[in-house]
Amino acid sequence: MTDTTAQPRNELTHLESVVADLLAEARRQGASSAEAGVSADRGLDVTVRLGEVETVEHTNDHSLGVTVYFGQRKGSASTSDLSPAAVKETVAAACRIAKYTSEDPYAGLADAARMAYDYPDLDLCHPWDIDALAAAEIARACETAAREADSRISNSEGATVSSQQGAFVYGNSHGFVGGYPSTRHSISCSVLAGTGDAMQRDYWYTSHRLPDALEAPEAVGKRAAERTIARLNGRRLSTRKAPVIFSAELAPSLIRSLLGAIRGHAIYRKASFLLDAVGQPLFPDWMQIHEDPRKIRGIASAPFDNEGVATAPRELIKDGVLQGYVLDSYAARKLGLETTGNAGGVRNVTVSQSNLDLAALLRQMDTGLLVTEMMGQGVNTVTGDYSRGAAGFWVEGGVIQYPVEEITVAGNLKDVFKNLVAVGCDNRIPGSMDTGSWLVEQMTIAGE
After folding, report:
1. How far apart, in whole angstroms, are the C-alpha atoms of residue 220 and residue 188?
2. Among 186, 210, 229, which residue terminates a domain?
3. Confidence at residue 448, expressed as pLDDT on a 0 to 100 scale
4. Residue 377: exposure state from Cβ atoms within 10 A (0-12, 13-18, ≥19)
5. Average of pLDDT values for 325-349?
6. Whether residue 76 is found in the same domain as residue 24
7. Distances from the Cα of 340 to the Cα of 211, 262, 276, 277, 331, angstroms
């Protein structure tokens, strides 16, 4: 039997030595301090379309980024070559850049006292011992289930099996060097239904760190077909105001808009509609949003952030009230605050949920729009104005009546958050944001 744990351990040891050599080289070249992150990623992606293997892609990528400081002058450089000569030249390039940059009083490593010198194993690495032939069989089973689910399925964009394995190490001049291996696997399928101008497409997928935790490929294919068939014969709506449900697949986009607006870099640039919002109610008082970066096997879990700062659970929204901003050390210094351990982003967000599944949410809404697809960006982080192309289903009497398309959903995010009626318990895919569908009291729906 193949030892699937030996390779990640060996990779981690190699990357740790690369970082140690890099930091030593930075000292030799005169840097007062330095930090570096290095990663190695391997993967297999196999796509089957119309029963035939369309693509087989093996990846084996490396990347290294180094930042050096000469006092408070900063220089950064990167490379995909981890050879000793390339590492030395990358450090030299960063040093040359630093010598020509202006001093920045806020630049520098995160505080030494915040380093994650002792951190837990979050059980993030579960390699999948699978080859291209076996992956193709799984993808074929997935696509076959989709194509055979309904006679109206007329074409396929294929089914893909993906297995990714990586290792990441970060170190800095505080003496901190840490790293961890991780894996992520998925099965996805996308098919088309109808003919000519009446064709519709949709998809489904399953993703997890453990291969054994993935949904059965046949279930993924069948779900992709069901979603596609449901979109046939879509209609347009006249412009109106009505309640809106954002499906569990789309609700995370609203959370991302919230997180973007409370990022320290947006706050100190005064480019956010949530300036000075800490301590203010943004949502109804039942709303809780929690970050758990050390969730065991979490998709976005990490024991430390991209500056080596120890991560920790925190409340982002408590009883509807914003508890704080999302800060790395630079933004924290600019704002006169402390880093929140969020260099690199927010990790594993959980939203408080009701006991209402999607059917119950539809009944509570009674009449309105269920949004299942969004197009375009259409979010102004400075003002909070929100306007995005959408498709979904019109609901009357708590029952889906017909699919709708070529519409726009608009409002202001402050109003969307304030007028949130309920969050469902219908999330079907483990991800970095655990939330069900969101029922919003009213938004503008622009159509004909």
Report:
1. 7
2. 229
3. 80
4. exposed
5. 97
6. yes
7. 32, 12, 17, 17, 10
Residue whose token pair is 């893909």: 160
- For residue 405, is it within any domain? yes
- Do residues 205 and 90 share a domain? yes
* pTM score of the predicted model: 0.92
Domains in the chain, number: 2
CA–CA distance, 79 with 69 (Å, rounded to integer): 18
Is the domain of 17 the same as that of 119?
yes
**Strand-pair partners of 91:** none
Residue 21's φ and ψ, nearest 5 degrees, are: -65, -40
**What is the number of alpha carbons within 13 Å of residue 141 lying toward its C-beta?**
13
What span, in angstroms and rounded, lies between the C-alpha atoms of 333 and 149? 57
CA–CA separation, 395 and 358 (whole Å): 12
Percent of the chain whose pLDDT exceeds 70: 98
25: which 2 tokens? 């080289």
Which tokens in the block code for residue 133? 């032939």
2-48 confidence digits (pLDDT tens): 445 566 678 899 999 999 999 999 999 999 999 999 999 999 999 99
Whole-angstrom Cα distance, residue 410 to residue 399?
23
Q: Look at residue 296 and tell me if it is in a domain.
A: yes
The verdict on 102 and 144 lying in the same domain is yes
Q: Please, are residues 423 and 435 in contact by the beta-carbon 8 Å criterion?
A: yes
Contact 245/394 with Cβ under 8 angstroms?
Answer: no
Q: What range defines the domain where residue 410 resides?
A: 234-448
Q: Residue 140 to residues 20, 202, 236: CA-CA distances in angstroms?
A: 45, 18, 36
User: For tokens 């347009």, what's the residue?
Assistant: 236
Separation CA 183–CA 414 (nearest Å): 37
CB atoms within 10 A of CB 18: 20
| CA 317/CA 117 separation, integer angstroms | 29
Residue where one domain finishes, among candidates 209, 229, 249? 229
